[in-house]
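Late entry, evening session. Most of the bench is empty. Finally got around to the prediction I had been postponing all week. Sequence below, unchanged from the version circulated by S.P.
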Amino acid sequence: RQRATGPRATYSATPLDEIDIAGLSASRFLLRETRLLPYRDAEGHVNLHLCRQSWAQLGASAGSYTTSVKEKLGAWLRHAERWARLETEKRDSKGCSSMSAPPRRRSR
């Protein structure tokens, strides 16, 4: 199986409350014409949280979308989840925990 040689996708984990979905260009949606199922943020990165939200929307509307749309969104979600997992592993291997607070400075 050959790998695509085009530009590689980039990913983000920007929280949904920081993304202006109404302000996204049509190209950020899986269904561009109807502006449904957003999966990329304003910078064009595949966004983990947009993918999760769109996947939930797709599941709640069973039968409303084609198999092709479900497969594409499922693939983007898998890639974004894998990216997030690898990013967490990278941070953890460097001794940083995304869940821990930065060390406090002692006052004198």
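Two things to note before I forget:
Residues 67-93 form the longest helix (27 residues).
The CA atoms of residues 3 and 47 lie 22 Å apart.
Will write this up properly tomorrow.
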